[in-house]
Amino acid sequence: MSQIKLIIPYFAEVTKTFPMLHIKLFTFNPFQENTYLIYDESKEATLIDPGCFTHAEKRELEDFILSENLKVTQLLNTHCHIDHVLGNAWAIKKFGIPLQIHPNETSVLKSVEVYAPNYGFQGYESTEAEKYLEEGQEIWVGKEKLSVIFVPGHSPGHVVFYHAESKQCIAGDTLFKGSIGRTDLPGGNHNLLLNKIKNQLFALPDETVVYPGHGPETTIGFEKIYNPFVGERAFH
């Protein structure tokens, strides 16, 4: 019996569990934009870049929230191009939460109401941010901490959200699998984006999973080698 007593505490220590950050992906609107709902075991959730516009898309998101018994407490935009903000007004009203963006995205968000009809989004509702994100800021999703990384270039106030414990980041339109965000839109800066990816995102661990604003996930390690714009093989 004395041997069992010695084994049990050691076994309990090595099998310790850690909090988890869950990331749920939805793909919405004709731009095939990736909307993310992130939450932890406390069931507190943060909605990032809601691209839902049709009733069916909003219902899909709402049904998942209800099925998982989640409480949405935050609304964040990585940046404010039309495909990433179509569901902002709906989310603000539905969940009673304030919108948070980087201050450099204010004019980008404001401009959406001007050109939305040209893209066929009749009835788009404009929104304004109530809170502003800063580089290095910490954001809590329940008991899980995200860091705000400032990565402009695709847009002037683009931010990325990084969860260090699980090595996961919501990257918006900065870094894609085998590509980078376009820089030919107003406020874009190609050289700045390349620099920020290399010095900010590539400073993250190689095993970091990147969840982009469009397309499949990737990893920092893969893109450091194979990305044709910023990877090592792009210069050989």
From TrEMBL:
<dbReference type="InterPro" id="IPR036866">
    <property type="entry name" value="RibonucZ/Hydroxyglut_hydro"/>
</dbReference>
<keyword id="KW-0479">Metal-binding</keyword>
<protein>
    <submittedName>
        <fullName>MBL fold metallo-hydrolase</fullName>
    </submittedName>
</protein>
<dbReference type="InterPro" id="IPR051453">
    <property type="entry name" value="MBL_Glyoxalase_II"/>
</dbReference>
<dbReference type="InterPro" id="IPR001279">
    <property type="entry name" value="Metallo-B-lactamas"/>
</dbReference>
<keyword id="KW-0378">Hydrolase</keyword>
<dbReference type="Pfam" id="PF00753">
    <property type="entry name" value="Lactamase_B"/>
</dbReference>
<keyword id="KW-0862">Zinc</keyword>
<feature type="domain" description="Metallo-beta-lactamase">
    <location>
        <begin position="32"/>
        <end position="214"/>
    </location>
</feature>
